[in-house]
Every structure is written in structure tokens, then in C-alpha cells.
Amino acid sequence: MTEPIVIAEKLTKVYGEGETATEALDTISFSINAGEFVVLLGPSGSGKTTLLNQIGALEPSTSGSLKVNGVEIAGMSDKERTEYRRSTVGFVFQFYNLVPTLTAHENVALIAEITGDEPDARSDVVLEKVGLTDKREHFPGQLSGGQQQRVAIARGIVKDPPMLLCDEPTGALDLDTGQSILELLKLTTEGTNRTVFLVTHNSTIAEMADRVIRLRDGKIVSDEANKNPTPPSDLHW
Amino acid sequence: MKRQKWQFLAVGVTIVIGVMMFAATYDSYLNLTASYEQTYDRLAFADMTIAGGDEGLADTLAGVDGVQTVTIRHSADLPITIGIDTLRGRLIGTPASGQPPINKLDVEKGQYLTPSGDFEALAEVHVARTFDLDVDDVFTVIVGPGQEFSITGIAASAEYIWPAASTQEIFPNPEQFGVFFVDEDLVSQLPASVSVRETLVLYDPDVVTEDVDALVHDAATEAGATSIITQADQPSNSTLQLDVEGFGEMAVMFPILFLTAAGMAVYVLLTRIVFSQRAIIGTLRASGMEPRELRRHYLSYGLWIGVVGAVIGVLVGMVAGALMTEMYTGLLDIPDTVVVFRPLTAIIGLIFGVVAGALSALVPARAAYKIAPAEAMRGEAPLMSGGKSTLEKAIPPLSKLPVRTRMTLRGIGRSKRRSLSTVLGVVLALILILASGGMMDSMVNMINEQFNEINLEDATTITSEPVSIELIASINATPAVTKAEPVSAFSASVTHNGDTYATTLQGFENGTQMHGWTNPSGELPSDGVLAGKGLADRLGVSIGDTLEIDLPTHDVTIELELVEFVSEPLGIPLYARTEVIAAALADAGIQDPKSLLAEPTVTTVMTLFDPTVSRATAIAALEGVPGVLAVQDARQLYETVQQYLGLFYAFVGIMLIFGGLMAFSLMFNTISVNIAERSTEFATLKASGMSDRTIAWMIVGENLLLTVVGIVPGVILGVWMANLFMKSFSNDSFNFELAIQPATIAIAALSMIVVALLSLIPGIRSVKRLDVGAVVRERSA
């Protein structure tokens, strides 16, 4: 039996104080097994990105517990959070967030440099995986949206993290490109035991997941396993 | 504006300083000019002072068009004693019957000379202050048995606001030179060898001074005058004008530097604001807002900051200007202090501030309304095209550096205008710091050179009897004295091609140890004369020319060949060996030149002291030598100047602070904008596990590199500007050569690096505080 990689218990995140306080996550509890492709689904303001940020240790929780690989991350110091993000998670964002002054290869190598030896070689391997070897020396401004997102995925996985956190990765892309990105995400995790969290408001995309957690108003309204995930190429929205 | 309050505050402070310094220096410039003019008008300061010339000169000049009044007076430099002190007293003849029509005296205490009084004198304010003289105090003129004078009053004179003894003696030691005004009838009776007949000329008001100067000059030359000095060249006035011109130049330089810096900062800041408000701009345009309304909105940022900064700057500056004027006139004992509220200064200051703010806001404001609504509403700026940095292209191996280092290099070219802004901040600040630091270094160097390399004597001994070999031997025998030499000095006037220049001719022994030689051969030549290099400009003389040197106190003109030029910081003197002067005097018909040269009014004995003996002991020992009348400490002035070095460097320190503030303002704004624009980038790197320290180093590296890039042209332009200032201040009395110390350049450059690091602190802290979660979800905003 696969071990849970993420265990949340009564996790709460409140933004603001007093009358302006907003409960983005309201005492939610769940556990995720390693290697699962998890879609966090919900409308705007449901708390899905907040949850992703909690898993990514981008911001502290208000209360409750969040353990990753058995380690409590809620009470981590800034330094420990940085170390955790470096070793445990890779991020893919809706708007790619590439450094415009660096080439595709350099954008990936920049992150590879902070996590181990031979950053150039490792970057070349992941760029090949995302099918961008021929665009190695291109700058983001010379790449299409889909290509930029591929570079972002390569950047996310170059550290070989146990978890890849994707925030609306297809949100800025057309259908075909979106499909290809989802295929790539699926492909890059196959055989790696890497857990993928994908945030989306698009319920169609949820069909490709092993697990779908629906959120609304900061609460989990359903947490379902999908025994027959749909291949991304069959998804239409 | 509230969101960028610190950035706007930095810009505001820069505008305030720029406008304030303009208002303060420009008002001081005008106030001081008005103060001098009022004093000069009230005291009928001579437009021309002529020494020598034939008896009919005054009548001739009275008939020159534009001449209002001509008077004749006599003056004499004689040794005097005040209590136990002996000094050179300048006795200037003035009518006992009442104030003279030209060069009146401002009697500040006591009363003017009385017609019936015997041996009365007015003490000039500087000598009165130095020796604490009051009404009814006395001093003695050492002529023959000595004559005591009683002081009836303390008076200021337009001629001695700066108590210069002559064009060649701008800094006489106040303890060894003093001016007294005595009955003209007494001075005129002194023999021609000690007194000088002076013709003072006052012009009609409203004439063109230069035209009348030329007519008077021609008439005086024709009459054989030995010295013709215009009001502009009068030693006190020309020295004071240097300061006034300094204020005038600062009044131009300060606003240019500070307002350029402020303008650049406003430009960078507003460009960023427009960029971040693209979506709002697009929405407003799509909703029908007129481009001119948008333009007005963004222009108003620049206008507001300009108006607020300029108003504060003008108010503070005008108060500072009044205080500076009063301090200055008080310090220099300028009889009149004119402090006037000048609406024009306020208006110009306001215009400076507002124009700087508005001009710098113009381009970003234009950019705002030029944005196409559809494009702007997307809120997304076109992704910048990447590329290798210039450095990487020039040095390909740099491409092998770690990516974060390459990112640092490329950050410089990311926004060329922003990078230019940082570089400009450094350049402008360095110009300010090095121009003022270079001036101070040059002044200190000039004084050191004059007192440590040229005037080498420790003291000058004035004797009461002819300077003989025996007298020199007895001075030399004084235990504290290591060397004594006779040195002769004449008031002289050089004539070449019809132009005359009043100076001094000094005679030294061969191999003298009392003077250092700055001519190419480094020694006093065996024949001919040396002249200060300024004489070439003044009279058009060149090496090999024969100079006609008139010695008016001895009514003789000698001829000497100009052999070399000396390069001395103070004055334009003439030097020859004593034996050469003696031979020339003989050639000119003087029967016994050796006796003439031995006269104590001509020759003094310069001495070097044993460095192990205190100066006071050495001077006391010298004063005890029979035949010694007075001992003038040649080092006293140097030591006094040394005491004021702290003040000089306080001025440079203030410029360093202002320069630092200016650079800080620009760098802080540029860096803040840079970090705000790249917040998504930095947040993404942080999300990926890059430490705050690594990101901070990348930011520090980028900005330090830009600072270094700015330091190079900044130092070059700063040194150039300092050189320009020094040249503009040079005149007959001062030959300023730029002598900027490497330490000054190093401190200025280092201060820029410190300022760069300080200006980075808020930005780096903001990176540390970045809400990574929030930022990475959004597009760069």
C-alpha cells in the first residue's frame, strides 16, 4: 500500500483580521498518496490556490496541521520553508513566470544550479523531455505560450521534486496547447512516483485526475478517487 | 502617490535640495554683490588707483570724459610697534579736515581725524581687531627716533575689506601687517623712497566703466605711472569677487545637478506607475476618457512633486541665503549688509522645480495616452525580448559563468533608461563631490606648495640699520638660527609694449635656502630675471624679452632679460640674484647700488630656524639681536590656515552628504522600480527554493556593477568640472592649478558604493517580505 505524502488535519488559513477577515481554508482535512495526480477543483475564491500555496509552503497556515512526508510544515521557519521548497516541490504557474533575460535552457538551469551538480546536463535532459531541445537558446519572448509553459514545466521538474504543484497551467492557453501541456504533465510524472497537484476551475480537466478534491468557500465539498482517468487528448472544453 | 510615498519623498528631497541651494547661493550672490556695491558707492571706492606718474596727471585725468573726481594721496609702508609687537604698518594719507571725496572711511567707533589734532590716526578694523585696539590707544611709527600716534577711531575702508597688502600679497599675516589712516600732510612729507604718491579716480555714475578705464589707463601710462589698478583688479575687491563668483557658479551648478537627478528619478518612477496602471488606463480610455485628461493626470504627478519641492526649497533657500549673507558680511567685516527679498529668485526657483518635475513627467504621461485601449486593458505589457549582455558578447567566456551571474549581467541591459538613471545618479553625485573636493584639495595644495616648497624661510627679520655682513653674521650666530640670508625686495612695475604691471622684484643670494624655484631649471639663474608665468598673459612677454622694470621708490628703471617663468600659486612676482639687480642698478646710473641694497627698507634678513628649538624661543632670541627691529614669523599664516582646514573639509563633507543624497534618491527609486517590476520573477525564484540571500546578491551585483560603470565617467567629469572651477577662479593673485588628491577620488568613489549599498537595503528587504503566494498568482503588476 502506498504511503500518504500529504496529510492535512483541520488546516485553516485566514486572510486579514477582524471584520475584514476571510477564511480561505476552513478546517479542511485530507490525505494524498505519493504518485497520485490530484486535481483541486473549484470556482474562483473557493480556496484551491490557497491550498496549493499551503502545500508549497509559500505562506504560513493560521491553524491546523499539514504534514508532507511526515514533516510538519506549518511551523517551519523561513529558512526551512526555502529548503523545503528547494527539495520537495516544483511549481508551474498559469503565466509561466519565466525570466525574460534568460534563454529556455538558462531558465531551467537557474533552478538546477541551486539543487545539485551538472545543472547544464540536467537542464538539457528535461528540455528534451518537454520537447524543446531545438528551442534551447530561445528567449521567452521568442517562444509561444505553450512553449513557455513547457519551459516552466521543465523548470519545475529539473530538481526532480516528489511533488509538482501546478496552478491553472492551461488557463492562458488555447485548447490544443492546453491539451498538450496536460499530456506533458502526465507524461513527465509517469514512472516517477511524483505527486502532481493541479489547480483548475475547469471540471473537464478533472477527468484526467486520479483524485479530485472539490472546494467551495474554503471547505472540501468532495474528495473522490477516479478509477478511470481520461487521457488528456480526449478532453474537450 | 501614497503607494510610492518613499520614492516620491526621495525625489522631493532632491528637488528641495536643488532649489534650496539655488535660492541660497543665488540670493547670497545677489545680496553680496549688492552689499559690496552699496559699500563701494557709499564710500566712493576709487574706480582707478594709479601710483606714480608726473605732476600733471591729476589735471589730465580730471579732463577725461567720464571722470567725476580725481584726488591725490600718499601712502607708506613703515615699521610700527603696537605694545611689544612690531609689524609693517601701512600709513595712508587722508585729509584731516574731513572725509576725502574718494575712498571715504566708515568710522565704526570713535571719530574721524580732527583738523587741529597732532599725530592722530584711524585704525583699520582688521588691525584693530587683531591687536584689540580701541580709541585713545597708541602705536609708534619707527622713523628716526619714533613717532607716537593716537587712535581717534576704528574705521572700515572699501580698499581693505579683504586686508590684502598688494596684488602680490593677498594673504599678509594679520599680526604683521596693519593699515592706519593718518593726516595726508604727514605722509606727503615722507621721503619719496618710502612713500608712494597715488592718484585716485572716481567715475561719473552710469558711464561704461571699461571705456573710461581705457582712457584713464592711456593717460596714466602716458604720464609714466608705475601702477594702474582698476577697481576690478584692486587686491581686496578682486579677492572678494572670487567668492562672489563662486556663489554665482554654484547657483548654476547646484540646480543643474540636483534637478537633473530629480527629473530622472521622476521619469523612472512615473514610467513604472504608468506601466503598472496599464489596465486602468485601458479601461478609462475604453470608457471614453480623452487622451489629454490622461496626460494631465500623469503630468500632475510631476507637477505636484515639483511644486511642493520647489516651494519648500525656495522658502528654506531664501532664509539660508539671508543667513549666509549675514554670516559672510559679518565674518569679513563688510560695512553694509544688503539682504533683500527677491521675488525673482523665488520665481526662478519655483520654475526650476516645476519645470524639472513637469518635463520629466512628460514622457511617461505621453506614454500613458499613447497606449492602445485594447492592448492596455489586457494589463499585460509585451514580453521584453531577451538577449546576451554586451559584456558577454565582448567576452564570450562570460557565458560560462553560473546562470545567476549571467542574469545579473543581463539585468543591466534589461531597462537601459533605468540603468542610465543609476549611472547618472553616480555621475552627478561625483561631479558635485569631486568639484568641491577638488577645489579644496587644490587650495590646500596651493597653500602647502607656497609655504613648504616656495617660501622656505621661517622668519623675516627687519633691521633698524643697513644690512651688513656683520649684522647677518650676528643673526646667524643666534643659536636658534641655522641660516640667515639677506633678501631684497622692491615695489616694481614692469612695462612691455606700452602695458604696465605692478609687482615686486625680489633679490636672493646665489644658492639661497629661503626660496624654492619652480622654473624649469630649478634654480635662480646667474643672469636675467625670473617672472611669474601670469606675466605672459598679462603683458604678452616671452622668454628672451628685455623687461623694463621701474622701481618707483628709488626713481630708477632697470632692464633685465626674462630668462624663465616660475610657476607659483600666489601672485606674479619677479626674482633675480641680488648681484644681478646690483649690476642692473649700476647700469641704470645708481652710484652705489650696494648701499641702496643694504637699506633696511629694501633688504630684510630671512632666517631658517633650528627645528629642535621652539619657534617662540627662536623669535625671542632673534628679537634680542642688536640691530633687529622686528621679526615676522613666516609660518604663522600657514599655521593659521591649517587651523581652518577643518572648515574647508566641513564644506566638502556637506557636498559629500548632498551628493550622497542625490545619488541615493536616484538609486533608491531605480532599484525600487526594478524590484517592483520583477517581483513576479523574484517570487518565482523564491517559490523554486532560491534563498533570499542569493536573490539579494544578484540585485547587489547588478547595481554595484552599474555604480562602477557610473564611477568612471563620474570621476572624469568631476575632475574636469573641478579643473574648470579652478581655472575660472585664477587671476593675478591666485594661480589655481587643480591638484586633486587620489584619496579624494577614492573617498568619493567609495562613498558612491556605500550609497549604492544603502539604497539597496529597502529593496532587498522588500524582496524578503514578498508575498510569494500572492505574487506568483498574478501577472507582473
Characterise the protein shown here.
The complex is a heterodimer of chains A (237) and B (781). With 237 residues, chain A is of the alpha/beta class. Chain A contains six helices and ten strands. In chain A, the strands form two sheets. In chain A, strands 6-7-8-3-9-10 form a six-stranded mixed β-sheet, sandwiched between helices. Chain A has a four-stranded antiparallel β-sheet with strand order 2-1-4-5, covered by helices on one side. In chain A, a hairpin with a 2-residue loop joins β9 (211-216) and β10. The longest helix of chain A has 15 residues, at 175-189. Chain B is α+β, with helices and mostly antiparallel strands and 781 residues long. Chain B folds into four domains: 1-45 and 231-382, no CATH class; 70-207, no CATH class; 415-455 and 635-781, no CATH class; 456-633, no CATH class. Chain B contains 24 helices and 19 strands. Chain B has a six-stranded mixed β-barrel with strand order 2-3-8-5-7-6. The longest helix of chain B has 42 residues, at 235-276. The mean pLDDT of chain B is 88. Chains A and B meet through α1, α2 and α3 of A and α12, α21 and α24 of B.
